[in-house]
Design brief:
The chain is of the alpha+beta class and 644 residues long. 68% of the residues lie in helices and 7% in strands. It folds into four domains: 10-244, Rhopdopsin 7-helix transmembrane proteins (Up-down Bundle); 246-332, no CATH class; 338-467, GAF domain (Beta-Lactamase, 2-Layer Sandwich); 502-643, no CATH class. The strands form three sheets. A five-stranded antiparallel sheet has the order 6-5-9-8-7. It has a two-stranded antiparallel sheet with strand order 1-2. It has a two-stranded antiparallel sheet with strand order 3-4. It starts with a helix and ends with a helix.
Length: 644
């Protein structure tokens, strides 16, 4: 029975070591994911603070498995950074979640600040006094610091803040009006205690000077590790939806595939590295060599398995929109892009050249009232010069009688074949091939192949033409689609402001940056200023009320504020990197100087100035978007205060 107990303790110890490393990996991966995908969301940032505390505690736990006795106390105190900050992070996270339901309270914000001050105060006591914990005790799998006289004060503070946070999350859930918001809040409520469970065993062993019996403690630790792993993933899944403008299905797809290709693969690698026996040689090879081969093989096979399972995973993710998503994915694979069309036409032209034993051929498309070279075989400058010097429309009309049944017309040293749509009276382009004779003289067997190749080129051009019509339609309706999707994604809460206060703003349009550029280009007057969609911005409407009711003047004032938002502090310098963006916008648009003069004053080429001007306009658009969001937040706060 003694041997069985030792074996059980050894197995639990290994399982906990693997789980601790997996929690570290998962917490770090989720932290990076949320910071890169949801950084603008206050909820995500607050949750990252909570994840950070769990990450620190478990990182210390992983290190302690192999730490020497002389370094144990140092790493135990390192763990207390996460333990001490966890209560404040709980307060911060729960208060931020409640604030998303449009219930704001100055007292809660002060409580969060006080919570961080208390946590840092306890952390200082841990590092510099024996009042909270002291004297590291080295016991395998149960190394801990002894409890000081103020330990129970910290424990009380910890549990009070966690319970308070849970009550706050419950209150936020009660304010949810839609099924989606209630579901997400339910996930938060169920998983809210996960990070606390991650900290609890370390507080428990600190409070018991003699520790716990090995196997029961390891079993408790194992259950806690599994619970923490599941709960932080569930919490991150809920938090991932806060503050994003992409559809739910995209968020779900990105997060699940990220977890599969990141934490899951990493966890399996950790499992292999820790479970391969620590013996000198395996199969006649050093252990390190076996580990390297095993890890490489595992990573490759797991990636293959995930790719194979991707259709099944996507069916689970998109179970309600399965057919539509499958159709969208099919379109993505089969759409004919400009590069695809160019490659297909070049192959077709090369085949025609081989067939007719000539060196040069081209396809020109009708665009903007003239023919433009789309694809060519042979010397491109020669083809471009030919298109400039000849009126292809006139050639294909005046030489219409020279077809001779070949499909070609002679003209200017080329045989020309008009590419006309078969489904509508649309001129798609012209195919031209170097003339081997003044009059097309195709042999019967050549005519058949040439007719087939020209037909394929015509079909490709027509498909591309139809696609362009679809894309043009999508571009026109995209702002409306974006607006509807944003309104659909607005989470409704009790006492939240009306929908028109929340949703619709030009800053969310894909054309927003172009509108900013256009308005700046007509800064001193013109239709791009007086008829700009930016006139609908809330910040412009506010300026309109304050400055005489002139829309152009109000927009000009707001644009000036956006440009001035890029102005660095201190004395103005013309060529310093910090001042370049502001100087370009101020001289180019606000003062209306010529590009050549600006480039000379800034000691740069005109092409370089244009490149930096694009960056400057992008930065000004970001400042303007921030101004608009601040104005919208003030309106929401005003409406919320009236409702409450």
């Amino acid at each position: 029975m003694g041997d069985l107990g030792v074996l059980l303790a050894s197995g639990l110890n290994l399982a906990n070591q693997i789980l601790s490393a997996t929690v570290v990996l998962t917490a770090f991966s989720l932290l990076i994911y949320l910071l890169t995908h949801n950084f603008r969301s206050p909820v995500a940032r607050a949750f990252c603070a909570l994840l950070g505390s769990v990450l620190i505690v478990y990182a210390g736990d992983v290190v302690l498995y192999d730490a020497s006795a002389s370094t144990v106390e140092r790493w135990l105190k390192f763990q207390w950074i996460g333990i001490a900050l966890a209560p404040a992070a709980y307060l911060h996270f729960s208060a931020t979640v409640l604030r998303t339901t449009n219930l704001r309270s100055r007292s809660r914000e002060i409580a969060v600040l006080v919570g961080y001050l208390i946590s840092f105060g306890f952390l200082g006591l841990v590092f510099f006094t024996p009042w909270v914990v002291y004297d590291g005790v080295y016991v395998p799998q149960q190394s801990h610091l002894a409890a000081g006289p103020l330990f129970w004060a910290f424990a009380t503070y910890f549990f009070v803040t966690v319970v308070w946070g849970a009550i706050t999350i419950r209150r936020a859930r009660q304010r949810c009006l839609t099924r989606a918001s209630r579901r997400r809040m339910t996930y938060l409520e169920l998983a809210f205690f996960g990070p606390g469970l991650g900290v609890f065993p370390y507080m428990l062993v600190t409070s018991l000077p003699q520790g716990l019996p090995s196997s029961p403690f390891l079993a408790l630790l194992f259950a806690g590790n599994v619970s923490v792993l599941v709960m932080i993933v569930l919490l991150a899944y809920s938090v991932a939806y806060f503050g994003v403008l992409t559809p739910d299905r995209v968020v779900k797809h990105n997060l699940i595939h990220y977890l599969l290709r990141g934490p899951l693969v990493g966890a399996m690698v950790i499992f292999v590295m820790l479970t391969i026996p620590r013996v000198q040689r395996i199969l006649g090879l050093p252990r390190d060599t076996v580990v390297i081969f095993a890890v490489v093989a595992l990573i490759v096979f797991l990636q293959l398995a995930i790719n194979r399972l991707k259709p099944l995973i996507d069916r689970v993710i998109y179970r309600q929109d399965r057919e539509e998503i499958a159709w969208i994915q099919t379109l993505d694979r089969r759409l004919l892009t400009t590069a695809d069309l160019g490659g297909f036409l070049e192959n077709t032209l090369a085949t025609l050249c081989d067939l007719l034993q000539v060196r040069t051929a081209f396809v020109a498309v009708w665009a903007g009232g003239e023919y433009r070279l789309e694809a060519g075989v042979g010397a491109r400058p020669l083809l471009e010069r030919y298109l400039e010097q000849h009126n292809l429309s006139a050639l294909t009309v005046t030489n219409g009688g020279e077809e001779n049944g070949s499909g070609f017309m002679g003209g200017g040293g080329f045989w020309l074949a008009p590419l006309q749509s078969q489904t509508s009276d649309v001129r798609l382009g012209i195919l031209g091939i170097q003339a081997r004779a003044a009059i097309p003289d195709l042999k019967p067997e050549e005519e058949k192949l040439v007719s087939l190749l020209i037909g394929k080129a015509r079909e490709a051009m027509e498909d591309r033409y139809l696609q362009q019509n679809v894309f043009d339609t999508l571009r026109r309706i995209l702002p409306d689609i974006e607006r509807l999707r944003r309104w659909r994604d607005v989470t409704r809460y009790a006492g939240s402001p009306p929908m028109e206060i929340i949703g619709d703003s030009p800053i969310y349009s894909p054309e927003f940056q172009q509108w900013v550029k256009d308005a700046l280009s007509h800064y001193w007057g013109g239709p791009k200023l007086t008829e700009s969609p930016l006139l609908g911005l809330r910040v412009v409407q506010a300026a309109l009320r304050e400055h005489g009711g002139n829309p152009a003047t109000a927009l000009r004032l707001v644009l000036t504020q956006a440009v001035e938002g890029l102005r660095p502090e201190g004395e103005r310098k013309m060529t310093t990197a910090d001042w370049i963006l502001y100087n370009i916008l101020e001289m180019r648009f606000l003062r209306g100087l010529r590009v050549r003069d600006i480039a000379g004053r800034l000691a740069m080429s005109e092409s370089d100035m244009y490149r930096k001007q694009r960056v400057a306009i992008h930065q000004a658009a970001q400042v303007l978007a921030d101004m608009e969001q601040n104005e919208a937040a003030l309106e929401r706060e005003s409406v919320s205060s009236k409702v409450n």
